[in-house]
């Protein structure tokens, strides 16, 4: 590991800790040349499938986009950040478990709706109304009736 201060190539690990949730390892390092300390984080490198949009374009998976759409649906709703993060992690685990190189965007939309339905019914209806792009009020009413049951 190269020192970020002096660019010396030899550093020594002083302390190693696993995060509370076990998702990464935090290491405190000391440069053998300048003696300065710095922190590094070790995370697993996973490759998510490409997302195939409705128009056929292929884009890379971006957690930030998924999180932004869920946050928009959950805006001003009584759902904690931890609950949202857990839902996103479940969606990502499902995407990885599919073991596919490409996933249609509709599949991700369905996974998001499933998680939102568990978290908050109002957020589910918000997301579904945009995602399914209803043509008339009867389709929207059908969705609301489904949630009430």
Structure description:
By secondary structure, the chain is of the alpha+beta class. It has 2 domains: 11-42; 50-148. It is 45% helix and 19% strand. The chain contains 5 helices and 6 strands. A 3-stranded antiparallel β-sheet has the order 1-2-3, with no helix packed on it. A 3-stranded mixed β-sheet has the order 5-4-6. Helix 1 crosses helix 4. The longest helix has 18 residues, at 81-98. It is elongated, with a radius of gyration of 21 Å. The N and C termini lie far apart (57 Å). The mean pLDDT is 89.
Strand adjacency order, main sheet: 1-2-3
The gyration radius over C-alpha positions equals 21 Å
Number of strands: 6
Beta-strand content: 15-25%
The parts where pLDDT drops under 50 for at least 5 residues are: none
Major β-sheet annotation: 3 strands, antiparallel
Distance between the termini: 57 Å
Portion of residues within helices = 40-55%
N-to-C SSE string, H for helix and E for strand: EEEEEHHEHHH
- Structural domains: how many: 2
Determine the mean pLDDT. 89
Count, helices: 5
General form:
elongated
Structural class: alpha+beta
């Amino acid at each position: 590991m190269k020192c970020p201060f002096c660019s010396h190539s030899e550093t020594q690990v002083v302390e190693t800790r696993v995060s509370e949730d076990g998702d990464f390892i935090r290491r405190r390092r000391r440069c053998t040349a300048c003696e300065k300390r710095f922190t590094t984080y070790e995370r697993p490198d996973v490759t998510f499938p490409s997302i195939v949009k409705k128009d056929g374009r292929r884009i890379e998976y971006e957690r930030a986009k998924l999180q932004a759409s869920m946050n928009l649906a959950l805006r001003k709703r009584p759902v904690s950040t931890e609950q949202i993060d857990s839902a996103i992690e479940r969606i990502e685990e499902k995407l990885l478990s599919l073991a596919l190189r490409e996933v249609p965007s509709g599949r991700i939309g369905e996974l998001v709706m499933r998680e939102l339905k568990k978290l908050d019914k109002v957020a589910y209806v918000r997301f579904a109304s945009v995602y399914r792009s209803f043509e008339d009020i009867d389709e929207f009413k059908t969705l609301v009736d489904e949630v009430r049951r």
